[in-house]
C-alpha cells in the first residue's frame, strides 16, 4: 500500500477506524477484532483510530490486548478525549480533564505514548489557544507525538495552528457527506495538516449489501439518524443502486470505490473506514489500488451529485458539539 504523510510520520494511505470494536454497529468479540487487526497489518493499514468514548474504553482495551500480544505490530495509534459522558454528556477540554482522559487511554492501550491525540469535541466556551497549550505540554512530556481535532471549523483550525502546528483534523466525509469541501479540506491542504475522513463508506451504505435498519439494536449508532429513517433510507438506496451498477461494470466493489473516491480528493486525505470483518477489510484496502479516469469521475458525480443524500447525517442529539461553518 502507498503511504501518506501524517505530520512527520508515513502511514498507509488507508487507516482503520476502531469504533466498531466497541459494538457501535452490533456486537463483536475480541477474537474477531484481533483477526481484523491481523488483516490490517497484512494489507499495510498501519494507522489505527480509536477513542476513550468508544465503549467507555472498550475499543482501546481490545487494541491494547493486541499490542501486548504482538510487540512488533508497527501500528501508529490515534485516540481522542474531551467528551465526558456522565453524569450528563458534556465537553471538557481543561488540562485536568484531558490529562485524566489521556492517562486512562495510555493505560488501556498499554503504551506510554500515542502518535496522535485528538480533541474529540471542542469545548466552545474555552479558547482553543488554551487547549493547544495543554496539548503542547503533552508533547513536551513525551505522551503524544502530535495533536488534532475532530469535527471543527476551518476558523478554529487556523486559530489552533497559529499557536502550534496541528497534525490532523478528522471529520465525516464520503460520497454522501460533503460538507468538508466547503473549506476544511482546502484549509488543511494550505496549512499542511492531514485531513482524516471517518465513515468514508457511509456507515455501511456502500457495502455489498445495504444494512437493514429494521434489525438495528437500540445501541446501534445509526438507529436515530435521519438518513436511516424509512423514507429517506429508501431514497438513499435508490441513489446508491446506480453507483453499484457502475462499480460492477468496472469490476470494483462499492466499498473499494468509495475509499478510492476519498483518496482521489487530495494527497493529504487519509480515510479511516471501520469494520469488524476481515473480508470487508480486504475490500477497503483494495480501494487504494483503484485509479479513476476523468470519465469515471464524471460518471460518479452524475450518479451521486453533491448534496444527493436524503436526511441529515446525525440526529439532533448526536450533532451537539460539531462545529457548523456553513
Automatic annotation (TrEMBL):
Q: Which domain of life is it from?
A: Bacteria
Coiled-coil spans are: none
- Which GO molecular function entries does the Swiss-Prot or TrEMBL record give? oxidoreductase activity
Statement: the UniProt record of this protein carries the keyword Transcription: no
One GO cellular component assignment for this chain's record is: cytoplasm
* InterPro entries attached to this UniProt entry: Aldo-Keto_reductase, NAD(P)_OxRdtase_dom_sf, NADP_OxRdtase_dom
Q: Where does the NADP-dependent oxidoreductase domain lie? A: 14-303
Keywords of the record: Oxidoreductase
One Pfam match, given by its short name, reads Aldo_ket_red
Would you tell me the protein name for this molecule?
Aryl-alcohol dehydrogenase-like predicted oxidoreductase
Amino acid at each position: 500500500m502507498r503511504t501518506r504523510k501524517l505530520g512527520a510520520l508515513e502511514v498507509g494511505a488507508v487507516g482503520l477506524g476502531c469504533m466498531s470494536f466497541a459494538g457501535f454497529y452490533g456486537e463483536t468479540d475480541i477474537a474477531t477484532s484481533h483477526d481484523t487487526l491481523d488483516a490490517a497489518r497484512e494489507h499495510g493499514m498501519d494507522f489505527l483510530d480509536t477513542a476513550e468514548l468508544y465503549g467507555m474504553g472498550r475499543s482501546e482495551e481490545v487494541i491494547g490486548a493486541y499490542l501486548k500480544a504482538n510487540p512488533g505490530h508497527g501500528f501508529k495509534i490515534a485516540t481522542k478525549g474531551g467528551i465526558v459522558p456522565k453524569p450528563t454528556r458534556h465537553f471538557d477540554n481543561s488540562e485536568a480533564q484531558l490529562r485524566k482522559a489521556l492517562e486512562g487511554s495510555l493505560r488501556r492501550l498499554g503504551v506510554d505514548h500515542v502518535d496522535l491525540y485528538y480533541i474529540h469535541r471542542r469545548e466552545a466556551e474555552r479558547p482553543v489557544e488554551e487547549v493547544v497549550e495543554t496539548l503542547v505540554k503533552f508533547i513536551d512530556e513525551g505522551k503524544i507525538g502530535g495533536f488534532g481535532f475532530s469535527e471543527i471549523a476551518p476558523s478554529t483550525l487556523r486559530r489552533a495552528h497559529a499557536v502550534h502546528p496541528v497534525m490532523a483534523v478528522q471529520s465525516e466525509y464520503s460520497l454522501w457527506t460533503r460538507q468538508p469541501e466547503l473549506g476544511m479540506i482546502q484549509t488543511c491542504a494550505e496549512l499542511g495538516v492531514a485531513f482524516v475522513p471517518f465513515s468514508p463508506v457511509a456507515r455501511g451504505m456502500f457495502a455489498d449489501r445495504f444494512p437493514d435498519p429494521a434489525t438495528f439494536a437500540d445501541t446501534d449508532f445509526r438507529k436515530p439518524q435521519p438518513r436511516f429513517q424509512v423514507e429517506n433510507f429508501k431514497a438513499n438506496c435508490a441513489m446508491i443502486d446506480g453507483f453499484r451498477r457502475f462499480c460492477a461494470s468496472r469490476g470494483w466493489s462499492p466499498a473499494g470505490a468509495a475509499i478510492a473516491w476519498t483518496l482521489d480528493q487530495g494527497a493529504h486525505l487519509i480515510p479511516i473506514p471501520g469494520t469488524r470483518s476481515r473480508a470487508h477489510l480486504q475490500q477497503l484496502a483494495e480501494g487504494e489500488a483503484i485509479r479513476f479516469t476523468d470519465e469515471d469521475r464524471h460518471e460518479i458525480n452524475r450518479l451521486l451529485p453533491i448534496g444527493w443524500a436524503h436526511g441529515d447525517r446525525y440526529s439532533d442529539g448526536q450533532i451537539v458539539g460539531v462545529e457548523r461553518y456553513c
